[in-house]
Amino acid sequence: MTVLGATAAVLVVGVGATVLAVTRSEEADEKTKHLLLLTEYSISGNLAVGAGDVEFAVANGGDVAHTLGVRNGPITALLTPGQASKLELLDLAPGTYELYRSLHEDRGMVSTLQVVAADAGSDPAAPD
Question: Rounded to two decimals, what is the model's pTM?
Fold first, then answer.
């Protein structure tokens, strides 16, 4: 397991018999941090974020290796089961972005990331 930044808050995600602990950094930066979980044929987590600098903790909760990329943008390293990595998106403009898993893209492993204006008045990740 890869630990991201200084320990301040720990999110524990259980997937089948696999439990991943992804540590969120509380560094003094301007990035908003979110978790994305990869399993076989699924990308889950916060798929609606505010514009600006965004950092995802990407965790592999599946049984096979996965990557996660943003179309025409960055992609994570190959993550073996139980590993995590970060994916930084800087100066992210409002709009929609395609997330894909390069090893399973041909099987429909794509998802949409919705980015809203930072001054939209509410946090898109907040529960209703």
Answer: 0.69
Give residue-wise pLDDT tens across range 15-39.
Answer: 443 444 443 344 435 677 899 999 8
Q: Comparing C-alpha atoms, which of 25, 28, 60 is closest to residue 43? A: 60
Within a domain: residue 16? yes
Query: Do 74 and 89 contact (CB within 8 A), yes or no?
Result: yes
CATH number of the structural domain spanning residue 100: 2.60.40.420
Q: For residues 104 and 117, give the distance between their C-alpha atoms in angstroms, rounded to a whole number.
A: 31
22-28 — which CB contacts under 8 Å span 24+ positions? 22/57, 22/59, 22/84, 24/57
For residue 66, tell me if it sits in a domain.
yes
